[in-house]
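Thread: "does anyone have the structure for this chain?"

Original post by V.I.:
We have the sequence but no experimental structure in hand. Need at least a predicted one for the grant figures.
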Amino acid sequence: MTGISIAVISLQALHTPSTSSLAKRADENRNGLYNVLWGWSFCDGCRYTGICTLVTCPGNRMPSLERYFGHYKELVCSYSHDLENHRMDAVVSSHEEIFHLIRVLKETPNITRGALAKQVFGNANNMGIESEQEHVIGLAVKALTMVYSTHWLNQNAEHDNGDLVSPNWLKDTPFHAFLEGLFPMIDHPGFGEDASASFWEMKSSITGSKLIRKGGLSFSPTEDLSNHLKLNRKTGVIEIFHHTAFLKENLRITRCMEGPMGVEGSLRLGALPRQLALEALDSIQKIIFPLSDPSAVTLLQRLVIEKGFDEDCLRFEASAIREPHETNTRYLYFGARLADIYDELENPTPRGLISRWAKRKGAGHANIATIIAVIIALIFGLVTLGLGGFQAWISWQQWKHPIEGPP
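Reply from O.Q.:
Generated one for you, tokens below.
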């Protein structure tokens, strides 16, 4: 297999069903996953027949989490295929072992990755085993927080559009500190203010339809929350973390909690910080794709069909997940990225040949229309000159070879 990376082989393997017991038994462990993540208690119908019989049972929300669970299965398959193609000494062989990792992360969010691996797996015998332990830990972290903590897992996620150089969770870094580093809080002027005049102006300017129509931008789904609202200026693509059902479950857990709660306290409940989850959800449903705007709903429906966005993005919920005062969200985590998108709309990055040429010559993007008009006028001038010359040639031919009338 010289010259072919393990990552490429594993990515190709995702396109065929995994034959490992871990991958094949994912569906029957769905209840266990939701129980360990969010403490779901199921009714007898869910446990024994798979049909929910109580209105208050959280099992009623399973259909809305279908896209999230599908991603979990992809992660499990990526691990299973790596074993089948390259390793036979699996670090884990059951979903319960993955659930145990999630429990430890929730109970001790200040644990380092090295200490976690030692506590759960014992001492590693070689570098290969240690690398596989990192992969399995990354799988548990991804299920709990929807962020990547290892480069290998990021490269092998089938539908990931995220940054392949995202940070690894280092061996001596506490888990909560790793997450705090991924999501720094920045009180950005405009989006960081609470319903200021500049906020409303900027917010109304960056709806999805305007970003497409005026900015020539497009949207791509990402499975990594830390990549949400990242703008690639070179390609004009904005990444959207689209697992809104996952965000809503996090908000249900932290609803009615007294006082602000940091990363460490939220993780003990099995949730992301409430402010972070609110910002991610509202930036989708209130700013980029405001569900009060029919054109935004149409655009979002198209992205669900064409780009694989989670259909739950189209469902707006309030009473079950929000506090009464949570109407206008301050953007302390994603304010800088929203401002970056707004700046791109105001000062577009040249991407086409003419745009780049105009930028290099100092003409500026605002004068591109003038340049195009000059080029069009030049083309019309050349065409007119050609027609004039052709007419002159016909007149000369008629003079030189007159057509004589009948005698």
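V.I.: this helps a lot. The beta strands are 218-222, 231-232, 237-241.
O.Q.: and The chain has 19 helices and three strands.
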